[in-house]
Design goal:
There is one protein chain. This protein is an alpha/beta fold. Helices cover 62% and strands 10% of the residues. The protein is elongated and about 115 Å long. The relative contact order is 0.08.
Amino acid sequence: MFKTLLKIISIGKEYYWWMALAALIGFLTVGSSIGLMMTAAYIIAKAALQVHIHELEVAIVGVRFFGISRGVFRYLERLVSHETTFKLLAKFRLWFFKSLEPLVPSQSIDYTSGDLLSRSVEDIEKLEHIFVRVISPPFVLLGVLLLMWFLLGIFNFYYSLIFAVVYLTAAIGVPLLTFILSRKIGTKSTHLKSKLNELIIDGIQGLDELLSFGAEERWTEEIKKTEQELLNYERKMQIVEGLHESLIGLMMNIAIFALSVTAIPAVHSGALEGFSLAVILIGVMSAFEAVFPIPQAVQYLEQSSAAGERLLEITENKSVVHPIFSEEKEIENFDLKLENVSFKYPDGNYALKEITMNIPNGASVGIIGATGAGKTTLVNLLTKLWNYNSGTIKIDGKDYYEMPGEKIRDAISVVPQNVHLFTDTIKENLLIGNPDANDEQILNALEQAELKEFVESLPGKLNAPIGELGNMLSGGEKKRLAIARALVKNSPVFIFDEITSDLDAITERNIIRTIQKIGSGRTVIFITHRLIELEMFNKIYVLLNGQIVEQGTAEELKREGKYFNKLLFSQNQLLNI
């Protein structure tokens, strides 16, 4: 737990001085409250003795000073602590996003959308408690303890000792009891919230299927069951929180009683003035203000640690190889060369093994193979989303390991099999490819993708909404919009990854003809398991179990390719050709 806490705190080390300042102001706030109550008690008790007004002047000034300073410090404490919290939250979000980015798509596929949403929103928001409710309160408590030790020591050393014993018992014993009672509650609550998010998001995304199969009631019951379980844990947390407030109040009364029993004889003997006893007791009561947040800090410590562990589970994934490069180099020629490239998953299984390819600038290359042959893995390597384990990939003669991933991805546009369209307008989805593109460039891209006429027929034209995930568009329209987005980016290398896999035959051929038109002057890498229009490629590579088993032109493969012809025969049988 504490190891996790230290790792999380180290992320915000640049704000340590902000944390220290907020804790100091927090101490000054409680100190001002103690000063206000003690000076007010002094005035009331002293005035009861009907003393001359000049004996109260200093105390009156003190009440005014502490009354004003308490308000000022309370405001400053809220201002600085919240500013620190917001800075830390921004830092945590940036840290998590930067750590998550290299995982896309290689490792993040192990997490559901709901789980990632929970980690990136709720878990990070729980980390805000680390400073305000976990780190700061113990420092404020320590400062108040030292202050009261000094103030009570002015009257009698034993008063300081009695106060310290009861105060520390309340500050340590009650939180320890709270921790024992709430053990695992915070962790369980965190995981249940994540599970609830997963169920809700999966239910929304798969609502059509749930309705079609009549499973909506079962799904709803599962959500209700999880939510009820979460409410039960949160109710337990509230009960524990209410208990610790009562126990701290009890400890405060014990401190008052113990000091009263010790000090009253001194009042009778004249060793301590009566009004001083009132000042002492009121001061002790005020000092317990710093104890109340401590048990709550223990509760939030467990929640924050659980959230931190869930975040570190992703960010400290050792199987991720982050982009490395020695210097930025410009790409002038877009020849791609792969020499004995291999990639294997953390479990040791190879997805690609000793792949060698030569893709000249402006060439049109086909990469075919059955499902699981390693085609999509190759895309991830070419775009440097993943890093290969051995061999070399070069662009313009420069090693991929010496190139920033962003520069490589600037040179390559990918139209994936599963096109992701954002819940926005046509224009905004296209601007993702190039935020600086103007309407003329966008319309030109739509025209090349043979989608301009369709877009101009819509009521909002470029500003027409496309629905969630583009559900207002047909499959072919989604693919054409993805092509247009790549055209707006205007990269010299285009990769089409199984772009026609879920389209009907007519739409498929139309899309391929579109690709043939826009491919002139660009490098086109067309990845598919469908063997059609193969004559368009300068060279075809055939993959089987992550290895190149055959290569050549379409005519050469038809004449000499054993596995190629096996694939072609299987496809023709399926299509009854």
